[in-house]
Amino acid sequence: MEEDFNVDMSKLPDETSVLEKSLAGQVGEFLDEKQQKEEYRKKNWFQKIPLWIRITVITLLSLILVLVIGLSIWLRHTLVKFDDTKGEETFEEDENSEGLTEIDPNEVVWDENLLGVKKEKGIVNVLLVGEEAIGAGGGRGRTDSIMVATANFDTGDVKLTSFMRDMYVQIPGYQDNKLNSAYTLGGIPLIKETLELNFGIKLDGAVLVNFDGFQAVVDALGGVEIDVSADEAAYLNRTNYISNPAYRTLKAGKQTLNGNQALGYMRIRHVSTADHTSDDFGRTQRQRTLINAIFDKYKDASVTELVALANSLVQYIQTDIPIADLIGYVSSMGSLHPGKLQTMRIPCDGMYDAVFVRKMAVLVPHLQENQKELHDFIFGPEETENKDNTEGSTDGNTLPNEEVSLDGDQAVEGNS
């Protein structure tokens, strides 16, 4: 009699399951390897293209981006013809003349043996002007900062020169006056003429930014890192230099300042810096510190990053630089990559007289000496020996009596 042959398969090894797992594993490994190869191929396809083609493609894409940005700039009407309407000649009287010798305007005799106006191929000099339009009623305000940015496309150097606004200079078509009065009298065009006459440099264009624009620029950069002293922090937290009370939260030490805070920091003149530089000397030093912080943030940026950054910032500035030149400058900046921003201040140490003239506390620069220092700094020394007047050697020095405020305000604290 035939018996049914029944086997409990659950008690036997599941050979089929093992085989299935083995096959599945092999298929999985094959698919994983194939996927990895595909991803590698996708990631490295660009590397297989000949170098000259890659360079051409990148160049064309960058050019297209630059042209698009240039069109954007043009459409936003950033390019302007600066107002040169003549203003009324006035002299900003200062209340504090302590420690200064009062002289007659006729006693100021300007050097005659000056260098000629200089311009060199491959070196671009752009005037940077910060405008304080508070109380201007829609008209021209005052210059809060006057600087010249230099880019040497042959050496890769980037430099910044700050001009103290209380310098007593020759102003074309007017009587001698403070440098910052040139803006009130004739706008950006007259500042250009004044710098050319007194210091012999040809400017390739100008950029004007007001307080609102400056704050927007800093905020667009995500803020800037500044080392704030305890005295500076305390002063900013209790005054309206930081106009928004919500931002009066600074502390001593390195910290990231937003636009409103950075503007307040840049304008301080009643508190000495950490190295005891006060008055307008301290303010111009802080301005250079702030520009340096911005420079450090973007000195290693690519051409496309710089052009994109320019596109986001053009709405906050005015410039008379032709669109073609502006695009060229921005796109060429990517090739510079300097190690650091070199800075200096005019007038140089020991090359001015602090006096009281026309009821103004001013610095009368020794033009011949300052011209040579400026030309050596911007264009390179023509002689073997050159006195170093870059940042580090110029900062930290003040007028003979540091209690004197060259801005017409009493020094209320922090001077030493």
Count of helical stretches:
10
**Helical amount:** 25-40%
Low-confidence stretches: 1-13, 384-416
Which topology of the domain at 76-299 and 338-379 does CATH recognise?
Answer: Aminopeptidase
Intertermini distance: 122 Å
What does this 3D model show about the protein?
The protein is α/β, with parallel strands linked by helices and 416 residues long. It has a domain at 76-299 and 338-379: Aminopeptidase, CATH 3.40.630. Helix content is 39%, strand content 16%. It has helices spanning 15-48, 51-75, 181-199, 211-220, 230-238, 259-267, 279-298, 303-313, 323-333, 367-379; strands spanning 101-102, 123-132, 142-152, 158-163, 168-169, 177-178, 205-210, 224-228, 253-257, 318-319, 342-346, 352-357, 360-365. The strands form four sheets. The protein has a six-stranded mixed β-sheet with strand order 10-7-2-3-4-11, sandwiched between helices. The longest helix has 34 residues, at 15-48. It is globular, with a radius of gyration of 31 Å.
